[in-house]
Automatic annotation (TrEMBL):
Record organism: Candidatus Alloenteromonas pullistercoris
EC number(s) from the headed UniProt entry: 5.6.2.2
GO biological process: DNA topological change
Residues covered by the Topo IIA-type catalytic domain: 42-510
Annotated NCBIfam families: parC_Gpos, PRK05561.1
Domain of life: Bacteria
Active site: 130
Region (Disordered): 832-869
Coiled-coil segments on the chain, per record: 444-471
One GO cellular component term noted in the UniProt record for this chain: DNA topoisomerase type II (double strand cut, ATP-hydrolyzing) complex
Full protein name: DNA topoisomerase (ATP-hydrolyzing)
GO MF term set: ATP binding; DNA binding; DNA negative supercoiling activity
Keyword annotations from UniProtKB, A to Z: Cell membrane, Coiled coil, DNA-binding, Isomerase, Membrane, Topoisomerase
Length: 883
């Protein structure tokens, strides 16, 4: 069978134009700058929307995603906008959609959102596959009349669809919701305003076309920010409306209260526009932590569903007025807003003052209303022609029927009706398409009534089109109705400039470095206690601090109030919390939950913690996870800029969690232990250091067993480990019994158990050289109770001894965790063996683990790495322990 002849490829004709690089770059950059200014970053003065916002609103309207109907998935809207109208990324479209719904950004939100749309703290929204949205009620006024030829339509980027060049915008959206955008060589920053105030100014300008700008400023008092607050009548405020550029001072709304503890409080209920609440709290916290003033006891975010609330507790003996004045001058409780009212007018960017904006908007409305009236007029005239034709046909119905019967087809019928009776083409079309029974006497009366109504509507429309005054009156009337329906009270108060609080306060002396005790539990309860309280409660004799029933003590350590508590959670986060930020309580009190400072998931647990005096670059933290990942991070990477706030320490795979963390010296030996009784040891240099955002690499060949603990030994160090299982079995293990090899070398079996009583390792305690026997370990049971497990001596347990407990635990109750009545203090005296010249040699071949990718050496259930030479054979191996 012969091959089909392929068509010849078209010949490409080269068209090379020589030129210099500066000329080429200049021309291309001009094109790029024009595109960014006109079609991306700067809003149109007529509808106040950027192209992406306009396309979102148009698509939601076109797909019926309006306030009258149920919300639709945001993924649907994003896909529709991106596929047909907006040739850019989905993230930019979704970000614009979310912004249109955020009530702390938009004075009148244009989108009604369902789901997480971010927060005033700057938190990101949920992914668009989870959220839903629809147009808000007032968006109907933006889009109304678009289907009546109210605006020009243009082709989309691929010439397959039509989109509006501008929306009808029956309310002055540019000033009401404001705008922000950075283009090439210019930027716009338009503050939001009160809907009723702007509409009143527009109506006043409609009725008095020659009024001065000062008369409009009687209506527009100033920006009306959605976050409320206070602004002041400075010259900068007037400059915004006179020149289109100016700066206004914004201040938080505050009042004073007294706390249940009798402390004075500064309560913040409204903050400046565009400022993150978390940033304000962080800045106040920093002042308190750094002791810039010695009068702030605590600052809390008490925001809930009822509204924003920041509580600042004032220590007794300090004046709350002076502290507030200091905070206003040093934090973003008071800041400035620089307005630059640039928008696109007639295709070009233009700086607008209040007067020029009103004129631009009014001209747009007149054009929209004129086009709408002309559309309705043409429609009514067309309908009137048809109605009159039907009425005429009814008067000669018999003759009409006869003509239609004698005609060959529809076209012949129309031609005969037009030639014999003088019907117009649209009339003849309506006659041949209408069932004859509708031309009864009753229907004729209805048609005659419709004809009279159409004539009135046509006369009214022609009257409006011929009268500028009537057209303006209709626009003003509609604006009043919109203001009545959608406006609300002003949120931002305008005060005289004289009321600005400019008082200052001298800084207080720094807080003295106090010796304190800190304690931290797995459930996240922490406390700072005085040494006197610690000793008075018997802490120095081994008494445990107060804890919730079922909780586990992770750390109890003496330190200095200026030290930091570095905590790691099972979700791969870390928290750098200065000790003096921890609320001081008695040693036997439970303490306060870490969520008073850092927001953690309700099920998130603390797994390890260290007291850090100095975040050194020559020490490391090694993190181990349950599914067998390991990661090494330089200690100074955990010196957080967001003190007291959780941040990522390690990226985890799905279902994985951090189980332990240990401090290493740069040349330490890592010892890892599995749940089923395996252990391995290797140099920490087998694990290259990574930043806090990376994942981990495979830690050991544990045949799919879960990792439960990681310990570290300094060079030349040998120690003993106390092991505890979930059944209460104990043993003493020497570090020399664990095979020292490569990271993925074969593991050592450190215990076996009967099949009838399988033991799982739950705790590993590294014994110091000065450890003496007997000693007890306080353990937390699965029932929530506590049990002291005794180690009578420090003799090594034979490696072939079966793990068996003599404890009589209640049925179904196991040992969960071992408590630690100690902790690690990292300061300048902590030994380091890190050598900078060896840093290059320490990197392994694989990259850290990333979820969803087939990384090398990730945890599997492969048993090929099992080293039989370390398997210990029990003298009971020949017995069946199930019998």
């Amino acid at each position: 069978m012969s091959r089909k002849k392929q068509p010849e490829a078209a010949k490409i004709v080269e068209n090379i134009e020589p030129g210099t690089l500066d000329e080429l770059m200049g021309d291309r950059f001009d094109i790029y700058a024009k595109d960014v200014i006109q079609d991306r970053a700067i809003p149109d003065a007529r509808d106040g929307l950027k192209p992406v916002q306009r396309r979102i609103v148009y698509v939601m309207w076109k797909t019926g995603n309006t306030i009258e109907k149920q919300t639709k998935k945001c993924a649907h809207t994003v896909g529709e906008v991106m596929g047909k109208y907006h040739p850019h990324g989905d993230s930019s479209i979704y970000s614009a959609l979310v912004r249109l719904s955020q009530p702390w950004i938009m004075r009148v939100p244009l989108v009604d959102f369902q789901g997480n749309n971010g927060s005033i703290d700057g938190d990101p929204p949920a992914a668009y596959r989870y959220t839903e949205a629809r147009l808000s009620a007032i968006s109907n006024e933006l889009i109304r009349d678009i289907n009546k030829n109210g605006v020009d339509m243009g082709l989309t980027f691929d010439d397959t669809e039509f989109e509006p060049n501008v929306l009808p915008a029956h309310f002055p959206n540019l000033l009401v919701n404001g705008a922000s955008g950075i283009a090439v060589g210019l930027a716009t920053e338009i503050p939001p305003h009160n809907l009723k105030e702007v509409i009143d100014a527009v109506i006043y300008r409609i009725n008095r076309p020659s009024c001065p700008i000062e008369s409009l400023m009687r209506f527009v008092q100033g920006p009306d920010f959605p976050t409320g607050g206070i602004i002041y009548k400075t010259q900068g405020l007037y400059d915004i409306y006179l020149n289109g550029r100016g700066t206004v001072t914004m201040c938080s709304r505050t009042h004073y209260e007294v706390s249940p503890d009798g402390l004075d409080q500064i309560i913040v209920t409204e903050i400046p526009y565009g400022v993150f609440k978390s940033a304000i709290i962080a800045s106040i916290d920093k002042i308190r932590r750094d002791k810039e003033i010695d009068g702030i006891d605590e600052v809390r975010d008490e925001t809930d569903k009822t509204g924003l609330r920041i509580a600042i507790d004032i220590k007794k003996g300090f004046k709350k007025e002076a502290i507030l004045a200091y905070l206003l001058s040093k934090t973003k409780l008071r800041t400035t807003y620089s307005a630059n009212m640039i928008a696109i007018v007639n295709g070009r960017p233009q700086t607008l003052n209040l007067l020029s904006y009103c004129d631009t908007y009014i001209a747009h409305q007149k054009d929209v209303y004129t086009r709408r009236i002309n559309f309705d007029l043409a429609k009514n005239k067309a309908r009137l022609s048809i109605v009159e034709g039907l009425i005429k046909a009814a008067s000669i119905i018999e003759e009409v029927i006869k003509v239609i019967r004698l005609s060959k087809d529809k076209a012949d019928s129309k031609a005969n009706l037009e030639s014999r009776f003088g019907f117009l083409p649209d009339q003849s079309e309506a006659i041949v398409m209408m069932p004859l029974y509708k031309l009864s006497h009753t229907d004729i009366e209805v048609l005659m009534a419709e004809r009279d109504a159409l004539k009135e509507d046509i006369a009214e429309a022609e009257s409006i089109l011929s009268s500028e005054e009537k057209l303006s009156s209709i626009i003003a009337s509609d604006l009043r109705e919109i203001a009545k329906t959608y406006s609300d009270k002003r949120r931002t108060e305008v005060k005289p400039e004289e009321e600005m609080n400019s008082a200052a306060i001298d800084k207080s002396d720094l807080v003295a470095k106090d010796d304190v005790m800190v304690a931290l539990t797995r459930d996240g309860y922490l406390k700072r206690s005085s040494i006197a309280s610690y000793k008075g409660s018997g802490g120095h004799t081994g008494a445990y601090p107060g804890m919730k029933n079922g909780d586990t003590l992770l750390l109890a350590k003496q330190c200095i109030s200026t030290d930091h508590l570095l905590m790691f959670t099972d979700k791969g986060q870390f928290i750098d919390l200065p000790v003096h930020m921890i609320k001081q309580t008695k040693w036997l009190d439970e303490g306060i939950h870490i969520n008073f400072t850092a927001t953690l998931d309700p099920k998130e647990k603390i797994v390890s913690a260290f007291v850090v005096a100095t975040f050194r670059s020559d020490l490391y933290i090694v993190l181990a996870t349950k599914l067998g990942s390991i990661k090494r991070v330089r200690l100074d990477n955990f010196a957080s800029l967001r003190l007291g706030k959780p941040a990522r320490a390690m990226k985890l795979l799905s279902g994985d969690e951090v189980v332990d963390a240990t401090l290493t010296s740069g040349d330490s030996t890592l010892c890892l232990f599995s749940k089923g009784g395996l252990a391995c040891a290797y140099s920490e240099k087998e694990v290259a250091p990574f930043g806090t955002s990376a994942g981990g690499i495979k830690s050991a060949s544990f045949h799919g067993e879960e990792v439960v603990d990681v310990e570290s030994l300094n060079p030349g160090e040998s120690c003993k480990f106390a092991l505890i299982t979930d059944m209460g079995a104990t043993r003493i293990l020497s570090s020399s019994n664990i095979n020292l090899g490569k990271r993925l070398s074969r593991s050592t079996v450190i215990f076996k158990s009967f099949k009838s009583q399988v033991n799982s390792l739950i705790g590993v305690i590294k014994l110091q050289k000065e450890a003496t026997a007997p000693f007890t370990v306080k353990c937390t049971l699965s029932s929530g109770d506590y049990l002291d497990i005794e180690f009578p001596d420090l003799y090594l347990t034979p490696m072939d001894k079966i793990a068996k407990s003599e404890l009589k635990l209640p049925k179904g109750v196991t040992v969960s965790r071992a408590n630690t009545l100690d902790g690690i203090l990292i300061d300048s005296s902590t030994q380091s063996f890190d050598k900078a010249e060896e840093a290059e040699e320490s990197a392994p071949a694989e990259e850290p683990a990333k979820e969803g990718e087939g990384e090398p050496n990730m945890v599997t259930n492969d048993d090929s790495g099992f080293d039989e030479k370390y398997e210990q054979i029990s003298i009971f191996s020949d017995f069946n322990f199930d019998d």
